Structures are given as C-alpha cells and as structure tokens.
C-alpha cells in the first residue's frame, strides 16, 4: 500500500508540474508580441522554414522567442503549414494569434493575391471583385491617377505594385493594400538597383524596372530570365530595337483580341518596340523579384535573339542567321506537334 501511495503521489505531482508548465506555456502564447508602435509588413518568401520566419520577424522589429514559437506551432500541428505571403502585423497581436494567422486560421483576415505580370488594370479589376476588401478607389482609376493616389514619384503606377499574396483584415481598404504593395516594390527595386552589376545600360532604376516588366511577360522559365535580360541589355547597348511582343500588346490595350498579327507589329504606339528603338515610357506589368533581379544581374551572354522552344524555355542566338535557323526548326516542330 505504501508503494502504491507513493506512486500515486508522484503521479499527482507530475500532473501538477505538467499542468503548471502547460499553463505557463499558454499564458506566454497569449501575450502580445513586443514590437514598435507602428504596424509592420512581414514578407515571407515561398519555402521559408519556421525558423526562417522567426528570423524575418525579428529583422522586422518583432520580439519572437524561437523556442516558444516552434513549440506552439508544433503543439497546434501547424509548423509545416505556415504560409508565404505579406502579413500586416499591428501592435497587440498575440504570439499564438501570429502563428494562427500564418497558418491561415485567423478568421478576421482575408487574402488577396497580385499576380506576377499583372497590369494595374488587371489588379484593379480583380480588387473590385474582392467582396471582403473595401474598394475605395475612384471608378475608372487608371495607372496615372493611381500613381498620384499612392504618392508615387512616377508618371504611372504600372510596375510599382509588389506581386504577392497579401493577408489583410476583412473590411480593410484597397487603397491601403496597394499603398503597401507600392512601398514594398519601391524598397525592393531600390535595393536591387544598389546591388546591380556594373556596366548595365540603364540610366535610372525606372528604366531597369521597365525592362524587368518586359522580362516578366517574356518568360517565367527558371534560368531563362537572366538570359532574356542579357539579350535586352545587349540590344540597348547596340541601339537595336527590343522587338518584344508584350510591349506591342500593352500598347494596343483593349483593342488586342488575343492574336498578335503583322499589322499589330507595324502599328506605331509609344510601346511598340518594333517601330521604336527607345524603351517604352512606363513598365508594362508588375514584375516579381526574380525578374527584377535578373535585369539587375543578367547572364554574361552576347546573345541578341531568342525564340520559344515550345516547352516554356527559349533558344538563344548571337547571330541573325543562327536565330533564323532556330526559328525555322522550332516552328516546324510546333507545326508537327499541332498536326498530330
């Protein structure tokens, strides 16, 4: 009996200790995150680990205990479900609330994604259909008026909206979301401009952003962005026209029906890089960070031409003769595949 009584006492003490430990754990998880007086935008890239998120949060000015963060995430079973995106973190958010938000379990939040390569018009049309975000922009707002509304030091908002998944409070305004997207894109472009390769043919970071917006529309194939960026840089150095179909399509606006023709290529607009050797006056899309970095650090290549292989990748050539041969080869391949 004495042994059983002793075991019972030990068991009870263990339960008390466990309960006390759990209580302490939950108490701290329920405390607000220590941070500055202003909200922060926390950018979490795709593939970031739970530990990596802690590092990003700390860099943004949030005091996060890594052990508690990882322990609570594992206890909730969400440590592998923490998602990439842009999170608006305001003072007062608790530690557990932060993790629940990262895992997509915060019912007070909604999501909105700006896709890489989207134009301002596409973004505004999509935002207007988002029922959980207040669309407080003027109907018919365009790139120029949006630039003024967002306080951008640019003639157009095109290219200046950072594409990513935004997690925002339900009922928040479209203008506040876009202002954050513009601020993030400006910081990214400025940072990459400071770290750019030597000898680029761009006088300003806006010119580099214009080319990045074209690269974004030309290819999203891994490894090809830097080579396409090199082609455009080489052409600019030689005074050659860029001859980029996406710029022609952008200049056509709503008149483009989905099929580009020779007549389109000959129709002169400020965005037609077949009829003009200059850069377009503005970006033609909102490029993502990979396209921006590719333009700031292109491949070491002398290629002046590229053609689609039909599998998403491109073939690059240094001479027109080589390019024409590649065009004939890949066009025949595509025609043969279409005839099967």
Fold and architecture overview:
A 4-stranded mixed β-sheet has the order 1-2-4-3, covered by helices on one side. The chain has a domain at 201-339. Helix 7 runs parallel beside helix 12 and helix 8 (205-218) packs across helix 12. The protein is globular and about 70 Å long. It has 13 helices and 6 strands. It has helices at 2-29, 50-59, 66-76, 95-102, 120-128, 143-149, 174-194, 205-218, 224-238, 245-252, 262-266, 289-296, 320-339, and strands at 40-44, 85-89, 109-113, 165-169, 305-308, 314-317. With 340 residues, it is of the alpha+beta class.
Condensed summary:
The chain has 340 residues and is an alpha+beta fold. The protein is built from 13 helices and six strands.
Keywords:
340 residues, alpha+beta, 4-stranded mixed β-sheet, two-stranded antiparallel ribbon, 13 helices, globular
Please give the structural blueprint:
Elements: H1 2-29, E1 40-44, H2 50-59, H3 66-76, E2 85-89, H4 95-102, E3 109-113, H5 120-128, H6 143-149, E4 165-169, H7 174-194, H8 205-218, H9 224-238, H10 245-252, H11 262-266, H12 289-296, E5 305-308, E6 314-317, H13 320-339
Parallel strand pairs: 2-4
Antiparallel strand pairs: 1-2, 3-4, 5-6
Helix pairs in contact: 7-12, 8-9, 8-12, 9-12
- Element order: H for helix, E for strand: HEHHEHEHHEHHHHHHEEH
Number of strands: 6
This entry's quaternary arrangement is single chain
Mean pLDDT, all residues: 87
Query: What's the helix count?
Result: 13
Strand order of the largest sheet: 1-2-4-3
DSSP strand content:
5-15%
Report, as a whole number of angstroms, the end-to-end distance.
86 Å
Shape: globular
Based on helices, strands and strand pairing, what is the structural class? alpha+beta
Range of helix content? 40-55%
* Computed Rg: 26 Å
What's the story with the biggest beta sheet? 4 strands, mixed
Q: Low-confidence parts lasting 5 or more residues at pLDDT below 50?
A: 8-22
